[in-house]
């Protein structure tokens, strides 16, 4: 249509079905049509939705923005909005006065964020949501903690006081911390739970963690549609477009085992990232363009129009409730100060900040608007402001009396009842009854019961047959050892979740937890999910081709329920480095910084198989470098030495060589009275190695995880004649054992396998060294010298052997509380270690002290030399390196 005359503006036109601007009217004058469309889309709100490939969804959005009068607010809601804006602005102003030289990453310029989040929560609560899991960067975090979560103001103010901590952990800066609060929502009169997940300065790293935590809450509450638990993610504009983890997390949103049934994203778009403006920080027109990949509608709104923001928040909450899909609110605002409060923004953005200096704060703009409308008076606005100021002052005064800050006040994932009533240094047994082993293995080796028409691949039929043969022989290989660990936990009511790329089949075609009908699409059978009628659920799910987001997701999942075994497997262990941020910032240091325990298990296929530099090394050395134990301090030996070490360290690093030990270490994750991450270097060639099998005898009741597997062959019977004691870990043991046998030197060389590398088994290492007093000590590894465990092992073995010490011996030690003899000897060292509280001087029976000289033997290295690359890509070179390694270790 072409308007040729001004009179055409008064002509009435029939409205098409594709618009809702008419309301109940079927025709409107052209000028009214244009006015209503401009009011909907050309004022404070811009809507991106035409890329959505659903007419139903597009029409739903049109109706929410085009319908006449749909944005109108009543006076009560306007007064509530003003009160919330007053609190948001007042909080930042108060901190600015009291702590003028402190960084707080305030919200000045986007104070509307607090009313916006509260509106999303109010609307969602009215629609049935009971729990909100939130993630956000540092900007505005303290304000959100205070005014959205209602965290006690005293706890926030004490973080500025520079006090010592009154409990465990190293803590973190105040604007990284999380919280968990349960409170009454006074607007809807419903109780709600609010959690803000702790986050480092690595912007957006928290996104998948929040999603995993949300998914876990939904799973354990039976919330299959996401009607009760909602995730809210806050973003900065530069990070939203610049961080790849945002894209990875969006792509989890529709995957069956990863969806949270819709997330509400809120972008605090202050149009600058640190000092970089959009011309340098992104290539797309809008920072929110990444959300288009999952057909999420995007609502841009002027943050200085509070009522428009409230409407957008209502629409976003309604969208998520209706369609269970992601939605983005883009709060177009500004940053009144620099990146932080002591930063000078005029250095780099002089024109922008000249304009910002002249802008009135949104609280003043909105208060003036409501006063002019007669909704409130100037006196009322002052009264609201003064009332909140008084609350702040009272909390500030109360905070002055505090002498400590407590990290426990900032826990974002409390485990109610988990620690109560437990002996903190006693684990439940990990062995199981043989009938359980047999039942699980038979099910794992069988086709679907009562499904004669389920067509199984011929290759899988052979695998199932070989599994059944192992059952008859009472043995398990790696896949069956893992399956029995999972199955026995499922029998005990423990949920098991295994996630990662290709985990259903296994990267190396060894697992096959999901059998596929060869002629019927989507017809599958999961044996471990069908072991017992009353078992816990088993979740095994192939993930997207992401390590960063998926590992973060599983971490979040594991934080929710301590009584679940959550595992992430890398397709190859080498690929864990693309998830390094999650490993460094959350897993290795999470308990220390944020008092966040997790029993998450990382399965990292590792081993030098001649497959090149990207399919060989899980970078064992990196995990060992980040362990929180001192190589120069020898812990006090006691009856609870092993579990005390586990309690004190930040994570556990293992390189198991037998399926039986894998079985025990996985079950131990649940048996422990606390939770620690477990890093396992899993094998590749050992998955089918004929020697890498375990008997049922290694897993039945009375057996346990072996931190070290000592020599058990001819050398063990010839202790005085052993010339060399080789310590090693993982797959290289089988190469060493085969070469030793071929050379005919099995009685003169002993090989001990270090299965748990961290925490380091000082006591068992010492026992092995004492057993062979005349043997040369060697550490052999397949990794290069500057990689693998060598740099971790070497100083610790030196510490174990070369300190002067006293040995305290006695024939019998008093029984413990359950009548078990705790041990037959104690050793402890001075001045480095002292008896534990349960092992006082008075409690040690009469003893005989014998000074013993230090063991002056030096540990020798046998393995590949240093290298910049983890492995060679040349098969011939690999073979030559293996030959040299074995000759060096065995002195052939």
TrEMBL record:
Cofactor(s) the protein needs: thiamine diphosphate; Mg(2+)
Record carries keyword Cytoplasm: no
Gene it is expressed from: Ogdh-L2
Species name: Homarus americanus (American lobster)
SUPFAM superfamilies cross-referenced by the UniProt entry: Thiamin diphosphate-binding fold (THDP-binding) (SSF52518)
UniProt KW keywords: Glycolysis, Magnesium, Metal-binding, Mitochondrion, Oxidoreductase, Thiamine pyrophosphate, Transit peptide
UniProt GO MF annotations: metal ion binding; oxoglutarate dehydrogenase (succinyl-transferring) activity; thiamine pyrophosphate binding
InterPro entries xrefs: 2oxoglutarate_DH_E1, DH_E1, KGD_C_sf, ODO-1/KGD_C, THDP-binding, Transketolase-like_Pyr-bd
A GO cellular component annotation in the UniProt record: mitochondrion
Annotated EC: 1.2.4.2
GO process annotations (BP): glycolytic process; tricarboxylic acid cycle
Pfam families membership: E1_dh, OxoGdeHyase_C, Transket_pyr
Protein name, UniProt field: oxoglutarate dehydrogenase (succinyl-transferring)
Subcellular location(s) per record: Mitochondrion
Family note: Belongs to the alpha-ketoglutarate dehydrogenase family.
Domain Transketolase-like pyrimidine-binding: 476-689
Chief location category: mitochondrion
């Amino acid at each position: 249509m072409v308007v040729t005359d001004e009179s055409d503006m008064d002509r009435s036109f029939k409205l098409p079905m594709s618009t809702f601007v008419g309301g109940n009217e079927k025709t409107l004058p052209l000028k009214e049509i244009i006015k209503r469309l401009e009011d909907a889309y050309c004022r404070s709100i811009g809507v991106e939705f035409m890329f959505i490939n659903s007419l139903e969804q597009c029409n739903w959005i049109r109706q929410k923005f085009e319908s006449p009068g749909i944005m109108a607010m009543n006076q009560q809601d306007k007064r509530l909005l003003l009160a919330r804006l007053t609190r948001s602005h007042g909080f930042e102003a108060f901190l600015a006065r009291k702590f003028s030289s402190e960084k707080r990453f305030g919200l000045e310029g986007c104070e509307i964020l607090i009313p916006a989040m509260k509106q999303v929560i109010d609307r969602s609560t009215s629609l049935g949501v009971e729990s909100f899991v939130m993630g956000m960067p540092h900007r505005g975090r303290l304000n959100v903690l205070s005014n959205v979560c209602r965290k006690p103001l005293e706890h926030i103010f004490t973080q500025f006081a520079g006090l010592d901590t009154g409990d465990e952990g190293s803590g973190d800066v105040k604007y990284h911390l999380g919280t968990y609060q349960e409170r009454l929502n006074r607007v809807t009169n419903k109780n709600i739970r609010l959690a803000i997940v702790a986050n480092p300065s690595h912007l957006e790293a928290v996104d998948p963690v929040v999603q995993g935590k949300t998914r876990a809450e939904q799973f354990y509450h039976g919330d299959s549609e996401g009607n009760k638990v909602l995730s809210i993610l806050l973003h900065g504009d530069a990070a939203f477009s610049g961080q790849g983890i945002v894209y990875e997390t969006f792509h989890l949103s529709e995957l069956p085992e990863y969806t949270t049934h819709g997330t509400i994203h809120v972008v605090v778009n202050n149009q600058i990232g640190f000092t970089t403006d959009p011309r340098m920080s992104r290539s797309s027109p809008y920072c929110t363009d990444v959300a288009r990949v999952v057909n999420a509608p995007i609502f841009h709104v002027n943050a200085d129009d509070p009522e428009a923001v409230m409407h957008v928040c209502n629409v976003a909450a309604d969208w998520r409730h209706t369609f269970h899909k992601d939605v983005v609110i883009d709060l177009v605002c500004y940053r009144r100060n620099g990146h932080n409060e002591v930063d000078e923004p005029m250095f780099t953005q002089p024109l922008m900040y000249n304009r910002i200096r002249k802008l009135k704060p949104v609280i003043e703009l909105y208060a003036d608007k409501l006063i002019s409308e007669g909704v409130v008076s100037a006196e009322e606005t002052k009264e609201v402001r003064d009332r909140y100021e008084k609350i702040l002052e009272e909390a500030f005064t109360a905070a002055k009396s505090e002498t400590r800050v407590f990290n426990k006040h900032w826990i974002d994932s409390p485990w109610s009842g988990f620690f109560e009533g437990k002996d903190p240094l006693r684990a439940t047994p990990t062995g199981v009854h043989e009938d359980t082993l047999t039942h699980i293995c038979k099910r794992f080796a069988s086709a679907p019961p009562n499904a004669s028409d389920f067509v199984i691949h011929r290759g899988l039929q052979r695998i199932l047959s070989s599994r059944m043969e192992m059952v008859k022989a009472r043995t398990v290989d790696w896949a069956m050892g893992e399956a029995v660990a999972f199955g026995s936990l499922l029998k005990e009511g423990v949920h098991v979740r295994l996630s990662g790329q290709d985990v259903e089949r296994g990267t190396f075609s060894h697992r096959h937890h999901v059998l596929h009908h060869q002629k019927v699409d989507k017809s599958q059978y999961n044996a471990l999910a069908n072991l017992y009628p009353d078992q816990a659920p088993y979740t095994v799910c192939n993930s997207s081709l992401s390590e960063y987001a998926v590992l973060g997701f599983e971490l979040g999942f594991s934080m929710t329920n301590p009584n679940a075994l959550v595992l992430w497997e890398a397709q190859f262990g080498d690929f864990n480095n693309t998830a390094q941020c999650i490993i460094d910032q959350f897993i290795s240091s999470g308990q220390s910084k944020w008092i966040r325990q997790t029993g998450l298990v990382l399965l990292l296929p590792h081993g030098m198989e001649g497959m090149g530099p990207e399919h060989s090394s899980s970078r064992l050395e990196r995990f060992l470098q980040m362990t929180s134990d001192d190589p120069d301090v020898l812990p006090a030996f006691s009856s609870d030495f092993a579990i005390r070490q586990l309690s004190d360290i930040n994570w556990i690093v293992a390189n198991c060589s037998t399926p039986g030990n894998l079985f025990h270490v996985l079950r131990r994750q649940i048996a422990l009275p606390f939770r620690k991450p477990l890093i396992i270097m899993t094998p590749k060639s050992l998955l089918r190695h004929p020697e890498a099998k375990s008997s049922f005898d290694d897993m039945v009741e009375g057996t346990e995880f072996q931190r070290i597997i000592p020599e058990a062959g001819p050398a063990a019977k010839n202790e005085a004649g052993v010339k060399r004691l080789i310590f090693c870990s993982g797959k290289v043991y089988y190469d060493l054992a085969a070469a030793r046998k071929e050379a005919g030197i099995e009685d003169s060389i002993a090989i001990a396998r270090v299965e748990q590398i961290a925490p380091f088994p000082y006591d068992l290492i010492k026992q092995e060294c004492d057993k062979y007093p005349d043997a040369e000590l060697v550490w052999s590894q397949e990794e290069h010298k500057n990689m693998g465990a060598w740099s971790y092992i070497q100083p610790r073995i030196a510490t174990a052997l070369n300190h002067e010490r006293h040995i305290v011996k006695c024939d019998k030690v008093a029984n413990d509380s359950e009548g078990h003899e705790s041990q037959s000897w104690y050793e402890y060292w001075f001045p480095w270690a002292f008896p534990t509280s349960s092992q006082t001087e008075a409690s040690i029976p009469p003893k005989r002290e014998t000074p013993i000289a230090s063991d002056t033997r030096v540990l020798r290295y046998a393995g590949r030399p240093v290298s910049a690359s983890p492995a060679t890509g040349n098969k011939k070179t690999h073979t030559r390196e293996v030959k040299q390694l074995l000759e060096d270790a065995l002195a052939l």
